[in-house]
Amino acid sequence: MSQAFSHRVLPYDRADDLLDGALPFLREGIENGDRVLAVTTLAMHMLLRDKLGADAAGVEFFESDKWYAHPARYLADTVGMAETAAWQKRRLRVLGEPAWARRGELELLEWQRVEAITNAAFAETGAALLCAYSRSLPAGVVAASRQTHPETMRGEATQPNPGYQEPWTYNARLDAKPLPPPPDDSLDLDIQVADLYWIRAYVTDFARRTPLPEDDLQRLLVAVTEVVTNALRHGRPPITLRLWLEPGELVCEVTDHGHWTERTGFGLIPPKPAGGASRFGLWAVRLLCSIVQIRTGREGTVVRLRLQIPAVPASLPVNTA
Q1: What range(s) does the Histidine kinase/HSP90-like ATPase domain occupy (predicted)?
Q2: Out of 87, 158, 164, 197, which residue is the most buried by the measure of CB atoms under 10 Å away?
């Protein structure tokens, strides 16, 4: 792939500001024969189509809310598109407007992490990514965009971001913050032997007393099996599985007293066909769960899985801390 990968942020105050940067970016891709995507709101779709005129036929339009629905699945799908385009001697070019509204604090952090990891995940694809950020977003979201994108675009001009951080540096900074302790009323299971049948039964019994959909329960069971297997193989006893509820979420945590070491963020990047084993299968875990939080150090390793649930039944304790 002759083109160099690019990942730029396009801050804007008004729709005209966004159009000033987006239209040249899209038109360049159309002229070059790139696979061109516009992932924005429906209102912006209309503006882009109007301004592009007949050229709009060379752009694929997608809605932000659906495109940016799940961090790991977004990465898997988009990296796959970029690699396919590169194999076809084309370039994937994406104008994206990440969906930040109505996300909780942990979701925001996870998507900011994805923006950083994008610089490693797409590095060899030659893709061109332009991410639009409204200045009306929370200040922390806008500030983080300058740390996760190497360059800023203003109109057709591009300038480096002095605050940009390399993806693994940014990732390590997020992981430096310790996780809050589990609630006192969590259900704890000490794991002495690798009896995965009873471990799955234990998780199933808890989950079926919540509104967690059956498909999500099956995803959770696969994820828990993978994490417990990793702890048994790569960690050190004692190993403990904990379950509890938080508002809108079922939380499952596995802890051990080993220090996991892995250079590339424990499954944050879609693995190559020959590279999955080096990530302990944690990429699959990230695909299965809404949020995966991992902390590891000399005192041990914690893997915390979160799945969204429609509501919390009154009969079960809820951690509101």
Answers
A1: 195-306
A2: 164
